[in-house]
């Protein structure tokens, strides 16, 4: 079975998705979230920090994956579990990247040749750590 990083690489390089789309597509496949292609289009506008250099699209995609893993009804019904997981993910992300905004991250991780692939791969590791730390994996083995 492919690793999350291998799946990220496939979606980013082969399907030419943006960073946020890559994480939600890869997370959907890896964690068997049951999202449809139409659902995942919702994250398209979050690439490149919502195209203004704001919060990195990979972090937004990661939060979306975590939300899908946790929430059964609506966020307010699951705040006791959701809040610490999301806080941990953001903290881990900031530690790994030195910030959370695309404008801070892009100069360090983006290259003309690979674009934001390195960002997507590192974000996948942060996501996996968060999922593992909280025992959230619902993957079929």
Describe this structure in a few short sentences.
With 141 residues, the chain is mainly alpha-helical.
What does this structure look like?
The chain has 141 residues and is mainly α. The protein has one domain. 65% of the residues lie in helices and 0% in strands. The protein is built from eight helices and no strands. The chain has helices spanning 4-14, 19-30, 37-40, 47-53, 57-70, 79-97, 102-109, 117-133. Helix 2 (19-30) crosses helix 8 (117-133), helix 5 packs parallel to helix 8 and helix 6 (79-97) crosses helix 8. The longest helix has 19 residues, at 79-97. The N and C termini lie close together (9 Å).
Q: Which features does this protein show?
A:
about 140 residues, mainly alpha, 8 helices, about 0% strand
Total of domains: 1
Strand content: under 5%
**What's the total number of strands?**
0
Radius of gyration: 14 Å
Low-confidence stretches: none
Sequence of secondary-structure elements: HHHHHHHH
What structural class do you assign from the helix and strand content?
Answer: mainly alpha
Helix content: 55-70%
Main sheet summary: none
DSSP helical segment count: 8
Large-scale geometry: globular
Distance between the termini: 9 Å
Mean pLDDT level: 95
Write the layout of secondary structure elements.
Elements lengths: L3 H11 L4 H12 L6 H4 L6 H7 L3 H14 L8 H19 L4 H8 L7 H17 L8
């Amino acid at each position: 079975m492919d690793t999350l990083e291998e799946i990220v690489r496939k979606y980013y390089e082969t399907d030419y998705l943006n960073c946020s789309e890559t994480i939600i597509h890869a997370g959907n496949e890896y964690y068997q979230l049951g999202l449809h292609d139409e659902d995942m289009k919702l994250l398209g506008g979050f690439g490149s920090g919502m195209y203004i250099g704001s919060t990195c699209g990979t972090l937004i995609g990661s939060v979306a994956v975590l939300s899908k893993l946790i929430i059964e009804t609506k966020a307010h019904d699951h705040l006791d579990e959701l809040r610490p997981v999301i806080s941990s993910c953001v903290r881990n992300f900031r530690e790994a990247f030195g910030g959370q905004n695309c404008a801070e991250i892009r100069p360090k991780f983006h290259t003309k040749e690979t674009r934001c692939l390195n960002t997507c791969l590192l974000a996948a590791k942060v996501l996996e750590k968060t999922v593992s730390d909280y025992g959230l994996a619902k993957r079929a083995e």
